[in-house]
Sequence to fold (516 residues):
Amino acid sequence: MTDRPHATAEQYERWYKRDCARCGRHRDFAAHWPDGHVCRTCHDRALRLRGHCPSCGQDRILPALAESRPVCTRCAGFRQSYTCSRCGSEGKLHGGRRCTRCTLDNRLAELLGDGTGEVRPELRPLHAALVAMDNPLSGLTWLYQPYVPVFLRGLGTGEITLTHKAFDELEPWRAAEHLRELLMGCALLPPVDKQILLFERWLHGYLPDLPDPSRARILRQFTTWQVLPWLRRRAEGRPLGTHTRNSAAAQVRRAAEFLAWLAREGRTLAECGQADLDRWHVAHRDHEHHSLRPFLRWAMHTEQMPALTIPRHEIRQQAPISQHRRIGLLRRLLTDDTPALRTRVAAVLVLLYAQPLSRIVRLTTADILLDGDQVLIRLRDPPSPVPEPFAALLLALRDSRTNMRTATNPNSPWLFPGRRSGQPLRPEGLATLLRELGIPTRLGRTAALRQLVLQAPAPVVASTLGFHHSHTARLVGDAGGTWSHYAPGDHGTRGGKSDSPVPTARHRPVHTETET
Fold:
């Protein structure tokens, strides 16, 4: 093998390439087995197959083939041994004839060592979590990425302290953030919402680049007393999504643009008048109006600008999909098992319960409840009944979630776990999956919510599914409903029976489409 770099093309072809006995491709061979030469891809895939050998009945790896059945190496007469020289388990071997897990263990001990040959005591939880991951090959692959060994070695020697401030200064930031999330998952760093950390990192690079120090001072006050507290309040209980962080950054950028516009007009923030504010709104688009409103309200509240009337933000909405199309999409999602299970469940939550993607990805396995033979889902309190056959799909997803084989999510509570430690799937990623499936997310949600307020009082729909009561009340009028005089709130009990139509496991689900 050491002669490979010096071999000519003809020699390389003659020495190292063969037709694979498994896939038939002409490639570099990894081993010569009784059925012929096998390429690296087929070699590694075969070594991952494990079970009871049909010939001897032992629980072993089954890389060989006998009459088209996978059998163990002993029954197939393999000359090679795939037994780890350290732990004795069978599988793919690396340097020193060690299995993948033992190789990962050795490499991590080397990187996280404190110079005495032992893992730094503070980092032992990280070492244990990485070694114990269900798929150690992904951890070993991670260690070969640029900068990862540098960061781990710095943690081992103490050059990188176990503080958030130390990780704020590391580059590249993506590799540093992933390691920070692993450390928070192991309780080696205090938990801080990932999106808040990313926003602060962006802010520390954005504010110093502003040309006017007075504008930077105003924006620093705005972010310190308005934006960051808003983010922290929203992060209580459940992590933020990327959309929330982007909204916060848009507020800061729009405020900076507004201050720059005032400067070009020869005005300061304190001198801004109603005519100035109206002219800015006329010259800018709707999403810019929406992003600037928090800054204007804060500036007026703190008396940094006069109390003015903020022009009303008009929301232009497309017509929702028809009820016939919504029912057709639900029927396809519930009967066609071709799409991925998590995509089907997410799409049904959109079309049946009108849930936004940012809320769907934050559902946990604890939000799926059983009350006898009735399945419930906690979108808000009280939990909502789940009709069949969607209940079966929901339970199947809870018991067979994806992205659970790495050290990032060994015990993830999320119903839609992501690839990052402690984080659910990103709403943007889920939106892409639904778009590829042909699901009109926003228009489908609007159609579902309009149908729901026609079936039940708007306050009940609002409290059960997590919407603002004014939003559902407006939809009642738009949809031609008759619940406008229903009084919201707790109506108490009479004669031991509750008068409130809030659905429970014994009530008829108010948001279930009988057509499905």
